[in-house]
Amino acid sequence: MFSRRLFSSYNPRCSCLPHRRSYATTLPPTIKQLLASPSTKQQDGQAKPQPQKVEVTGWVRSIRRHARISFAMITDGSTEKNLQAVVDTKLTKGLTNGVSVRLTGTLSDSPGPGQDKELVVENVECLGECDPEEYPIQKKALTVDYLRDHCHLRTRTAENASMVRLRHTTLKSLQDYFDNEGFCYAHTPITTANDCEGAGEAFLVTAPGIDEPASSTSSPAPSHFFGRPAYLTVSSQLHLEALASSISRVYTISPAFRAERSHTGRHLAEFWMLEAEWAFTRNVDDVCDVVEDSLKFALEKASENSKGDLNVLWGPDATEKLKILESAKDEAKKWTRMSYTEAVKELETFYAQAKNKPFEIEPKWGRSLGSEHERWIAEELVDGPVFVKDYPETLKPFYMRANEDGNTVGCFDLLVPGLGELVGGSVREERYDVLKKKVEDAGLKLEDYDWYLDLRKYGGAPHGGFGVGFERLVKWMSGVENIRECIPMPRWQGRMLL
Amino acid sequence: MFSRRLFSSYNPRCSCLPHRRSYATTLPPTIKQLLASPSTKQQDGQAKPQPQKVEVTGWVRSIRRHARISFAMITDGSTEKNLQAVVDTKLTKGLTNGVSVRLTGTLSDSPGPGQDKELVVENVECLGECDPEEYPIQKKALTVDYLRDHCHLRTRTAENASMVRLRHTTLKSLQDYFDNEGFCYAHTPITTANDCEGAGEAFLVTAPGIDEPASSTSSPAPSHFFGRPAYLTVSSQLHLEALASSISRVYTISPAFRAERSHTGRHLAEFWMLEAEWAFTRNVDDVCDVVEDSLKFALEKASENSKGDLNVLWGPDATEKLKILESAKDEAKKWTRMSYTEAVKELETFYAQAKNKPFEIEPKWGRSLGSEHERWIAEELVDGPVFVKDYPETLKPFYMRANEDGNTVGCFDLLVPGLGELVGGSVREERYDVLKKKVEDAGLKLEDYDWYLDLRKYGGAPHGGFGVGFERLVKWMSGVENIRECIPMPRWQGRMLL
Fold first, then answer.
1. Among B77, B151, B272, whose Cβ lies nearest the Cβ of A248?
2. Helix, strand, coil % over all residues of chain B, rounded to 5
3. Nearest to A51 by CA among A101, A103, A110, A92
């Protein structure tokens, strides 16, 4: 235990990583680590490095057979790159696309073009067969619908595997950002009695054999498992507010659920949200600052560490999509901020001057911005990410802080090209009396919000926060068309495989 | 944006942290960061550092008033330590326990005992009042039951705030460990058609207005929101197995749900689990190695970075509890491993020789280990963490790999003193025919496990994994008596506040 394993010296690692041992790991190196190992070419004035004996495990992605030697491309999912294995053709029996193998051999710089390193194989162990006729993941292009139907196998395709890795690195960079800013990662409840957005799209949770049938839950019956009706969370915000009133800075990455009836390319019934909430904000721009800073950080990290995966996902549009990402993450170019009122004025002017009706719904102060309006603002008016702030109070939930003007609230939506709303946030109403009136005006029961009002009653502090849909973020970064390809195992109305 | 803010030079940070800017942050420094700022004492041969003007936000934890000056202890939840604020008594009007404040002043080394630094206050801004008579979080000792009833305020106590921070740092060190070992953090579904453990304790999820009443869901009706009955996940394992068959190494930190009817100190209806799964394991000891290594890493990081919070949680038993932690994390002392068969032999011998019946249930090969047996093994026999391996096949789920002996499976439970089972894991049955027979023998429907069998049919690889209950882990580390204090907002039968 803790001893250096055979191949551990291949494990490339920043010496400052928060790991106690400098090189030794418990597990053998991945293909990503092997590909990053030092060159075996002779360096000036140094002894020629010896190619090292390594063991590689993974799956055959393709194989080219020649009379004497064959070339198998091996993947283990650790990187978008394959490792080229040079194998005596006599040893390749049974090696077809999808087979899992354990190979031993020597790793050295590749003399051929197309890859830096190759494995000259001495021994092949076939671990799991894969009938080339029957295998559902054939090498030809497979439709997204077909792959959704084969959800359990679809991460075997390059695109879906790249998405899983992009999620991982994006998650990590966001966590690094918030940890670094002194935020505490807190787990908020998934089952809850509250419906934060009040949209009536919450799923109900029951315990078979204990709860009454779902149809009779309109009045809480003592037979509920939790003693009252339980719903799946639609947002962790209210719970985070409770924690922010003692821990100051908190965030969570939590699943959220909406029984959405709409089948769009940007809605899921189950999705993940990063939500941050912190005390002692001064205004809504404070909240926008953290949003912009954290997302630019994530974009920068992705362009540093996930270029390979992004290229796989970008496909033929890579050049253009890289430009969009580079432009969005530019520190010198602050994202546009405008008020809802300004945005509506622009929309109205455009609508009035257009020859053909450019929108289904005429923009007007006091009306919601539709997807068509949001995209026009981000794509045509601004051509980049844009914060639209200070919406009319009537359009937004009760917890947003009333502005001095008496008819707007201190909130924002971040709109981005190709997607629309990516982030929503606000400063929260911290004034007890104002909030109490807003709860009543919204037709909510005061007793359900007793605890929420308590947060203002006892040492309440100005605070704010936001939520970013994680799948929307990776959709934006990757340019993937439908959000159903942005999560490994998507759920939407009528669809729940596995 | 991105400019250095007023106080950003106070922000202490390892220069190797994966953050692009070396010091500037978006937000002002926390009390934790201020307390870690450089000393204002003169160093040999250097100019005397000037005390810096800072702004501090937080809550008054206590205040001692004297005729001329007063001492207020300020917390912002970033650390278990308070910042002592030295305030002109004339400015302290309204400053009572729980009030939120913004203070400006100079931070310098404290001349008094008990703290390194203090804030000499120039200006006090009271942000939120807190009626000292009514405030539910009085300074006297409050019972755990009272605090559970005031769940939204309980992180204002030192113990509950320390638990939130301990969770954060433990989560972070576990993530660092797995990231470092080449694992990919993947989000697995929360709503699922599968009941991994088959224990019949899964919650049902319905969409009001779409689904049939819960009582009629025994046969899937087309009116289900997802087209079939949906449950809350009890384990992410099967989904992780699908991902591990392409990404090789995956882990998740996911909520899990059991409609537990038992009211013990170590069960919750909603809890968090870290589950890891990886391909190309050779045997169950490979899995134990990763468990031991990752947990020792988390213990070591906690003893480095969370000593203050652990001391708060340990209370008067700190010395003894530190010893237990130090012993468990000792790299040189490998955790005991024994087979179920050996463990039962020890239990039988002890049972036979004891004068008074030491267990409620007589231990016998083929029977489950009860909590009383598990704790005896960990506390009396071993006095430390112990892996019990290779349980009888009849006691374990269908997916565990059959051993060569024909009656046990390649699995383990990690038992720890004071708690019992902390981790469970196994190598999984990767042989298609063996697994198919096991599904049938378990009385499960083959068509429900088609996709799971596919993972073995097409390039299946030997693999294994484990799950650690996150609340159990922090309970073990902190020595906190009941698991309901190990999660900010606990849920159990009959209880779901907020």
1. B77
2. 35, 25, 45
3. A110
Give the model confidence (pLDDT) of A420-450 as tens digits.
999 999 999 999 999 999 999 999 999 999 9
Does ipTM exceed 0.95? no
CA gap A152, A204 in Å, rounded: 27
Cβ contact B440:B452 at 8 Å: no
Q: Which of A77, A239, A272 sits opposite B498 (nearest CB)?
A: A239
Is residue B468 within 8 A of residue B433, CB to CB? The reply is no
Cα angle for residues B377, B380, B382 (degrees, 5° grid): 65
Which chain B residues in 279-338 lie under 8 Å from chain A, judged by CB atoms?
279-280, 289-290, 292-293, 297, 300-301, 331, 334
Distances (CA, A) of B301 to A449, B182, B258, B307: 39, 19, 30, 9
Establish if B152 touches chain A: CB-CB under 8 angstroms: yes
3 state SS of B422: strand
Q: B interface mutation test: which of A172, A215, A237 has the most B CBs within 10 A?
A: A215
Is the pTM above the cut of 0.90?
A: yes
Per-residue pLDDT tens for B252-291? 999 999 998 878 888 999 999 999 999 999 999 999 999 9
Tokens read off for A405: 């003007």
Give the H or E element holding residue B55. strand B52-65
Cα–Cα distance, B46 to B49 (Å, whole number)? 8
Which of B226, B290, B491 is facing A496, going by the closest CB pair? B226
CA distance B293 to B277: 15
Residue B190 CB burial class (10 angstroms; 0-12, 13-18, ≥19): buried
Listed in sequence order, the DSSP H helices in A252-338 are 284-305, 307-314, 318-329
Contacts of B128 in chain A (CB under 8 A): 430, 456, 458-461
What's the distance, CA B137 to chain centroid?
25
